[in-house]
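Q: Given only this backbone (386 positions), what sequence would you predict?
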């Protein structure tokens, strides 16, 4: 090999080595691992939805009674409409005011209900027993007077509706004799009979009221028999503190007048129906449920609502009632709402002729809760032992 070829060969080898090295460097860059990107953090799991508040009702009558229990059940439905899936409600109907009520309340606790309503006076003692053993449950008892830390009472001023009905009755009666079918002679019912009579006397001072007791809240046959007895004694306008429409229907069969009670009973006998004194439990039930949901519910208290709070009204007043009487009704309702009118304002005399409330004195709730006498104008005596 000549020196020139040898130099050329060495140059070629050198260039080849440089190219090979460059190629190796290039290959090395291509094989470098890319940085691994951090995986996104998993989305936080949604908070579990709170369990609905389980609410139960014990009813003394059937939900289809058209009166007392029907009104309570309408309010139960109002709770469902107001709070949707935040609550689950249930009811047991025709629960007797006896020892069996305690069993029903214990069963409702066992089903997981945390707010329980007992809707009649006779449930007070059974509910007290169950409340003492179920401190994590809130109890509400209608028309009673005993409370504990986890049990409170509530009522509606039904005597206001009774008085308004009386104003109409006094105007519409031709015989001057009214009849009342009484349920059970407790202060609540006696107060309503008296208030009805006082309202009637405001329209006609000569009004007299006769009473027949059936000693039941819901017993249509007995209510019918009592209503007929009152008509036979000369009553031409009937009132009731019982739960069915039997009194109104009996009045219709005898071409007399009567009122609906607790719920609007117009449809049962429109030709005899003068008006219905109704209870709207929804405002209180919604408030009680809201208290329980928000953790502000407290026991040991009593609530008593009337026309002012939207719990009591008189509705579906018949066209037979004179316009001036309807105007008087509206005036009284306005006075009850703003506090300028008091139904139980003296002087008020008892049926025995003795003064029970002095002139210009206004009865307080303690007085109202203990009424066990008839006012002047109501015939007979309050049944003894009550």
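A: Predicted residues:
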């Amino acid at each position: 090999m000549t020196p020139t070829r040898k130099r050329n060969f060495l140059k070629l080898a050198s260039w080849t080595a440089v190219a090979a090295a460059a190629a190796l460097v290039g290959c090395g860059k291509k094989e470098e691992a890319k940085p691994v990107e951090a995986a996104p953090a998993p989305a936080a799991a949604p908070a579990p939805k709170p369990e609905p508040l389980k609410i139960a009702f014990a009813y003394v009558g059937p939900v289809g009674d058209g009166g007392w229990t029907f009104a309570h059940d309408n309010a139960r439905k109002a709770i469902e409409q107001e709070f949707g899936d935040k609550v689950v409600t249930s009811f047991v109907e025709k629960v007797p005011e006896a020892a069996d009520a305690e069993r029903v309340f214990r069963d409702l606790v066992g089903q997981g209900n945390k707010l329980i309503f007992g809707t009649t006076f006779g449930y007070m003692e059974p509910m007290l027993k169950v409340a003492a053993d179920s401190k994590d449950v809130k109890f509400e008892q209608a028309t009673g007077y005993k409370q504990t830390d986890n049990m409170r009472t509530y009522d509606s001023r039904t005597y206001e509706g009774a008085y308004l009905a009386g104003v109409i009755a006094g105007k519409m009666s031709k015989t001057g004799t009214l009849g009342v079918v009484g349920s059970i002679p407790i202060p609540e019912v006696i107060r309503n009979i008296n208030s009805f009579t006082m309202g009637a006397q405001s329209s006609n001072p000569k009004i007299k009221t006769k009473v027949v007791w059936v000693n039941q809240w819901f017993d249509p046959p007995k209510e019918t028999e009592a209503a007929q007895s009152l008509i036979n004694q000369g009553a031409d306008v009937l009132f009731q503190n019982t739960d069915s429409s039997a009194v109104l229907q009996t009045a219709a069969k005898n071409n007399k007048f009567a009122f609906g009670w607790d719920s609007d009973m117009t449809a049962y006998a429109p030709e005899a129906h003068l008006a219905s004194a109704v209870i709207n439990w929804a405002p209180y039930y919604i408030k009680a449920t809201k208290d329980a949901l928000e953790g502000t519910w407290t026991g040991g208290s009593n609530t008593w609502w009337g026309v002012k709070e939207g719990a009591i009204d008189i509705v579906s007043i018949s066209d037979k009632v004179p316009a001036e009487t309807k105007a008087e009704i509206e005036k009284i309702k306005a006075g009850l709402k703003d506090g300028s009118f008091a139904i139980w304002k003296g002087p008020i005399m008892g049926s025995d002729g003795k003064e029970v409330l002095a002139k210009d004195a206004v009865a307080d709730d303690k007085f109202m809760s203990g009424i066990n006498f008839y006012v002047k104008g109501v015939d007979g005596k309050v049944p003894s032992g009550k």
